[in-house]
Amino acid sequence: MIVFLLKSTACMLIFLTFYKVLLENESMHHFKRFFLIAALVSSFIIPSIVLTEYIEIEPTSISTQVLTMEPNGENQNIAQAVEQSPLNWSLILWTVYGIGVVGFGFRFIRHLFQIWSRIRSNPKLKRNSITNVLLQEQLPPHTFFSFIFLNKHKFETKNIPDSVLLHEETHALQKHSLDVLFIEVLQMVFWFNPVFYFFKKSIKLNHEFLADSAVLKNNEDQLNYQHILLSYLSNGTYNTHQSIGIANAINYSSIKKRFIIMKKQTSKKRMILRSTLLLPLLAILLFSFSETQTLHKGEKADLQFKSDISIYNTLARKYNAISIEKRIISLEDFRVLESIYSGMSENQKKEAQPFPERLPKEHQESATKKQLADYNILAKKYNTMISKGGNIRIMKSDVDQLTNIYEIMSDEQKASAQPFPDFPEPPPAPNAPMVLRGEKSDIPPPPSPKVKKGDISNIPLPPTPPSPLDYVISMAKKGATFLYENKEISSNKAIDLLKNNKDLNIESRNIKKKTIVRITEDPVTIE
C-alpha cells in the first residue's frame, strides 16, 4: 500500500507540474478542467496496471533451497521478537489516520450542513434551472450546484452587477460544484497528502477562469468587469466576509493571474501542440510507475478472480492466528488453501497471507472437539450395528473419516471416546469356475472384434502415462502426503521441486487408505 501511495503521489506531482508549466496560463479552460480531473483519476489507475512479459527459458536442474516454518526455529524467534515489541506502530499509524479522516469528515459535513441550513431558512427565488437564495448576512455571492447565494438587500435594490450574476450562473450551469466535491472527498480520505491541496487550488482557480470567460463572451467590457472584481475583492470585504470552502465564490483565487488570463488568447495550433504533449507524458508515466511482471511461458498468470484470493486470505489468516503446535486444519479447508495458493503468481504469493503450514501428524497433539463429536457419532452408529449382527452396510467414506480422526487422537481422547468399530472383513470375491484340462467349458469365449474385409483394424494405442509433474498435481488435489528425501513437505513445494528439476524420481504407495508420494534423487527400487 505504501509503494502504491508513493507511486500515485509521484504521478500527481508530474501531472501538476505539466499543468503549471504548459497549461495553466493558456485560455483552453474546458480542456484544463478535464485534464485536472483526469490527472487525479489516472494517478490512481497507472500504479495499478500490471504489464506482463512472457519469456522462454531452457529447463535446467537447479538447487532449490526450501524454507520451512519450524515451531522451534529461527522464524519463531523472530515472531516472538515482533510480538514482544513495546509499541504497535501499525495501530498507532492507523489511529492517527482515523483521527485525521474523522476531523476532515466533520469539517466537510459541517460545510454541507451550513449550506443546507441557508437554503432551508432563507427565501428563494427560482428562475429557470437556477435558484437564488436571498441571505440576510453580508456575504459575497457564491454558488453551490444550482443554488446562488446573494445578499437580499443588494439583490432587491439591484446593487449586484449583471456581470457578477452571470459569473455565478456560469458556475451553476457548468456544475463546477461536482469538481469541488470530488476533490474535497479525496482530500478528506488522503488528508496527509499535500498534493491534493494544490490540485484543489488549481481546480477552483480554473473554475474562475471559466466563469470570467463566459462573462467576457457576453460582450462585457473587460476593464469594467475588472473594476467590479476589484470592488468585491477589497481588503475589507475579503477579510470580513468569507464564503463556505466547498462553494464557488467570486472572492476566490489570485486576481492578478485572472486579469492576465482575461487578456490572453490561445491559438488552435498552440492548443493542439500542448494537448499532443500529453501522449508521451502518459507513456512515460505508464512505463515508469506501472507494475512489471515477468512470467515464464507456461507459468500461471495472476488469478483473474480476486474473490478466490480473498477466500484464501480469510482462511490463511484464521489458521495463522493459531500457533503451529495447536493448529489443526480441516481437510476441506486445506484443499481449498492448496488449490488457490498453487494458482497464484509469485507477486500474489508475496502480497497474500503466508501459507499456514501443518505439523506432521505424529506431532499433532489431539483432535478438535468437532472431530471428536463426528468420530463418536459414527463409531457409536457402527458399533451398534455390529453388536446386533446380521448384514450391515459400511460406507468407505465413513471408514476413512473414522481412521483419519482416530490417528490424530491423543491417548486420553481414545480412552474416553467410543471404541474403534471392529469392522468385519469384506466378503471374498467369488471363485472363478473350474474347468478340467481336456474338458469343454460351457462358458462361451468373448466375441472377437469384427473387422471389415479389406480394412485394417485400428487398435488404439495404450494411453501415454502422465508426467511426474502432472501426477504430483493430480495427487495434490486428492490430498496425498508428499515426502522429499523422507521429509514431509507441502504439495506446493513438491510441485515446485518437479518444476525446477525434471530428473527427480517419484514413488507412490497407499498406506492405511492414504497415498504417500515419495520424491527422491536416488533411483526408486521396488521391494
What can you see in these coordinates?
There is one protein chain. By secondary structure, the protein is an alpha/beta fold. It has four domains: 282 residues, no CATH class; 64 residues, no CATH class; 48 residues, no CATH class; 53 residues, no CATH class. 52% of the residues lie in helices and 10% in strands. The strands form three sheets. Strands 2-3-5-4-6 form a five-stranded mixed sheet, sandwiched between helices. Strands 9-8-11-10 form a four-stranded mixed sheet. Strand 8 and strand 9 form a beta hairpin. Helix 6 crosses helix 8.
Which terms would index this structure?
527 residues, alpha/beta, 4 domains, five-stranded mixed beta sheet, four-stranded mixed beta sheet, 11 strands, 52% helix, elongated
Would you spell out the secondary-structure blueprint of this structure?
Elements: H1 2-23, H2 29-45, E1 50-55, H3 74-83, H4 89-121, E2 124-127, E3 130-135, E4 142-144, E5 147-151, H5 152-156, H6 162-173, H7 176-189, H8 195-217, H9 222-232, H10 235-240, E6 248-249, H11 255-262, H12 268-276, H13 278-289, E7 291-296, H14 306-320, H15 331-342, H16 346-351, H17 369-388, H18 396-408, H19 411-416, H20 468-477, E8 481-484, E9 487-489, H21 491-500, E10 505-511, E11 514-520
Helix pairs in contact: 1-2, 2-8, 4-7, 6-8, 7-8, 14-15, 17-18, 20-21
